UniProtKB/TrEMBL annotation, chain A:
Localization (cell): Cell membrane
Name used for this protein in its record: NitT/TauT family transport system permease protein
Xref: PROSITE patterns: ABC_TM1
Parts of the chain that traverse the membrane: 28-51, 71-98, 110-130, 136-153, 190-213, 233-255
Annotated InterPro entries: MetI-like, MetI-like_sf
Organism of origin: Devosia enhydra
Keyword annotations from UniProtKB, A to Z: Cell membrane, Membrane, Transmembrane, Transmembrane helix, Transport
From TrEMBL, chain B:
Protein name: NitT/TauT family transport system ATP-binding protein
Organism name: Devosia enhydra
Key word RNA-binding present: no
Keywords: ATP-binding, Nucleotide-binding, Transport
PANTHER family: ALIPHATIC SULFONATES IMPORT ATP-BINDING PROTEIN SSUB (PTHR42788:SF13), TAURINE IMPORT ATP-BINDING PROTEIN-RELATED (PTHR42788)
Length: 265, 261
C-alpha cells in the first residue's frame, strides 16, 4: 500500500502531461511547421511557383473562395454518391458470398482482379464505358469503395463465435433472430472499419477521376489551375481536399464511437 | 410420469473428416433420474463433452439412441427445455446483465413461455441484483458465469447441461460458485449434467459420477456419491469426501497406469 501511495502523485503528474500532449501535441506541431514554412519562404525568398508562403495562401483564399466552394460541393456530392453506391452494392455482395459458396467462388477472384487494376488505369476504361463527366467520377468512387467493404463485411458476417451460435441453436432461434441479435452486431465493427477506409478513399477516387475525366470538382480544379500557372490555387485545393478527407474520416469515427460504445469487451 | 429423465442406449459417435474417422464416444449406456445431479468426468478431449453436446442436440449420435423425457433431444430443444452453460460465459458483449438474461425470452417470444422465471428473481438467485445494468466486460469471470447460469434457467428448462462451466476460473471462485450452483439447483429442482475434469468438483456436486475412459469415451465406472445434502464447503474436508475422491481418482487414472506398465 505504502508503495502505491508514494507512486501515485508521480503517476498522476505524468498522466497529466501525457493528457496535455495527447490533446495539444499535434496542433502545436502543425503550428510550428507553418511558422517554419513562413520563415523559410520569407528568409530565402522562395518563388511562389516553388513554394508559396502560408500568408499567400490565406490572403488568396478569399479571392478564390467561390471557385473553391463550387469545386468542393461537386466533389463532396460525387464522393458521397460513390461512397453510398459502392458500399451498398458491396454489402449486398458480402451477404451473397457469405451464404453461397458458389457465389463466393465466382465473385471473390473477380473482385480481387478488379481491385488489382490500378485506379489510374481503370478510370479511362470507365470513361469509355459510361462517358465523360459525373457518371464516370461516381463510378470510380464506387469502385474504390467496393473491395475494402466486401472483404471486411464478409469477414464480419462470420465473426460471431461458434459457441454463441450454438447458444442460439440451443434456444431454437430462427435464422432471422440469429442474424439480428448475433451476426449483425458482430459484423458492425468490421463494417465501420470498412467505412473508415472507404470514406477517405471515395474522395481520393473522386478527385482522381475529376482530374482525368471531368470538367468540374476539386480534381479538375487542380488540373485546370496547374495548366494556368495558378500555383496558389493548386495549393489551396490540396488544403481543402485534405481537410475534407480528414473530416470524412472523423465523421465515420464519430458514428463508430457512438454506435459501438457498448461493443467494448 | 416416470422418474427417468435422460436415457442413453448404446450411444456411439464417430466424426468423419475426409478420410479420417475419429471414434469419440463408444457404446455409452446411462439413465439419469429426474432431478438428479450427475457428473461426467474423464481426461481432456475424451469425448465427455460430445456426450453432453448430444444431449443438447448440438451433435447427433452415430448409433444408439438418446431420449429426454421420452423424446429426442431435438424435440426437447424445440420446446426450449434445455439450459446450457458453456465453459465461456458466452454473453453478448453489447448487452447488459439484464438484457443477456432476457435473450432467451426474446427469442422464445414472451407469450410463448408460460413457465418463464422473472429476471429480477434470477438476479437475486445468482447474487447479481446490484449488477443488472452492468456490461459483461465490467464483470469478473465468476460473475459472468453467474449471468450465464441465470440465462440458462430463465425459460425454466427441464435439463441443465454444464460443460466445464467453471473450468476457466481460479479454485476459490470455482468452489464458491459450485456451492451457490448447488443452492440454485436445489431451489429450481432440475436435472443437471455436469462435464468436468475436476475430481473434487464431481464429488462435491453430484449424486452419481460417471467415470469415462480416454478416447473413445465409454463409461468405465459409476460411483454413487453418498454424501448427504445439502452439501457444504466444510464437507470437502471430511474423510468420506477424501474417500470418494480417492475412489474416483483410482477409476479415472487406471487406464493410464495400465498403459504405462
Amino acid at each position: 500500500m505504502a508503495m502505491a501511495e508514494i507512486g501515485a502523485p508521480a503517476a498522476a503528474s505524468r498522466s497529466g502531461a501525457y493528457r496535455f500532449a495527447l490533446r495539444w501535441g499535434s496542433p502545436i506541431f502543425v503550428l510550428l511547421i507553418i511558422l517554419a514554412w513562413q520563415a523559410a519562404t520569407t528568409l530565402w525568398q522562395i518563388p511562389i511557383y516553388i513554394l508559396p508562403k502560408p500568408t499567400d495562401l490565406v490572403t488568396g483564399f478569399v479571392r478564390n473562395a467561390g471557385m473553391l466552394s463550387r469545386g468542393w460541393g461537386i466533389t463532396v456530392l460525387e464522393a458521397s454518391a460513390g461512397f453510398i453506391i459502392g458500399n451498398v452494392v458491396s454489402i449486398a455482395v458480402a451477404f451473397l458470398v457469405t451464404w453461397s459458396p458458389t457465389a463466393r467462388a465466382g465473385i471473390m477472384p473477380l473482385a480481387l482482379a478488379i481491385k488489382s487494376v490500378p485506379m489510374v488505369a481503370i478510370t479511362p476504361l470507365i470513361t469509355l464505358m459510361v462517358g465523360f463527366g459525373h457518371s464516370t467520377v461516381v463510378t470510380v468512387a464506387a469502385v474504390v469503395c467496393f473491395f475494402p467493404t466486401l472483404v471486411n463485411v464478409s469477414r464480419g458476417l462470420k465473426a460471431a463465435p461458434r459457441s454463441q451460435v450454438e447458444l442460439f441453436r440451443i434456444l431454437d432461434a430462427n435464422p432471422w433472430q440469429l442474424f439480428w441479435k448475433l451476426r449483425l452486431p458482430y459484423a458492425l465493427p468490421y463494417l465501420f472499419t470498412a467505412l473508415r477506409i472507404t470514406a477517405p478513399a471515395a474522395i481520393g477516387g473522386t478527385m482522381l477521376a475529376e482530374y482525368v475525366a471531368s470538367n468540374a470538382g476539386l480534381g479538375y480544379l487542380i488540373q485546370d489551375s496547374y495548366t494556368q500557372f495558378r500555383f496558389v490555387l493548386v495549393w489551396q485545393v490540396v488544403i481543402v481536399a485534405t481537410l475534407t478527407t480528414l473530416a470524412a474520416y472523423l465523421t465515420v469515427a464519430h458514428f463508430e464511437r457512438r454506435l459501438l460504445a457498448r461493443h467494448r469487451k | 410420469m416416470s422418474d427417468v429423465s435422460i436415457v442413453l442406449e448404446g450411444v456411439s459417435k464417430t466424426f468423419v473428416d475426409g478420410a479420417n474417422r475419429v471414434h469419440a464416444v463408444e457404446r455409452v449406456d446411462l439413465a439419469i433420474a429426474r432431478g438428479e445431479f450427475v457428473a461426467l468426468i474423464g481426461p481432456s478431449g475424451c469425448g465427455k463433452s460430445t456426450v453432453l453436446r448430444m444431449l443438447g442436440d448440438l451433435e447427433s449420435p452415430s448409433t444408439g439412441s438418446v431420449t429426454i423425457d421420452g423424446v429426442s433431444p431435438g424435440e426437447i430443444r424445440k420446446r426450449r427445455q434445455i439450459g446450457m452453460v458453456f465453459q465461456e460465459a458466452n454473453l453478448l458483449p453489447w448487452r447488459s446483465v439484464y438484457d443477456n438474461i432476457a435473450l432467451p425470452l426474446e427469442i422464445a417470444g414472451k407469450s410463448a413461455v408460460p413457465g418463464a422465471r422473472s429476471i429480477d428473481d434470477l438476479l437475486e438467485l445468482v447474487g447479481l441484483k446490484d449488477f443488472r445494468d452492468a456490461l459483461p466486460w465490467q464483470l469478473s469471470g465468476g460473475m459472468r458465469q453467474r449471468v450465464a447460469i441465470a440465462r440458462a434457467l430463465v425459460l425454466n428448462p427441464k435439463v441443465l447441461l454444464l460443460d466445464e462451466p467453471f473450468g476457466a476460473l481460479d479454485e476459490i471462485t470455482r468452489n464458491r460458485l459450485n456451492i451457490d450452483l448447488l443452492k440454485i439447483w436445489t431451489e429450481v429442482g432440475i436435472t443437471a449434467v455436469l462435464v468436468t475434469h475436476s475430481i473434487s468438483e464431481a464429488v462435491l456436486m453430484s449424486d452419481r459420477i460417471f467415470v469415462m475412459s480416454p478416447r473413445p469415451a465409454t463409461i468405465t465406472t459409476t460411483i454413487p456419491v453418498t454424501l448427504p445434502r445439502p452439501r457444504t464447503a466444510q464437507m470437502q474436508r471430511a474423510p468420506e469426501f477424501f474417500d470418494l475422491v480417492a475412489r474416483t481418482g483410482e477409476a479415472l487414472y487406471r487406464p493410464f497406469e495400465t498403459e504405462a506398465a
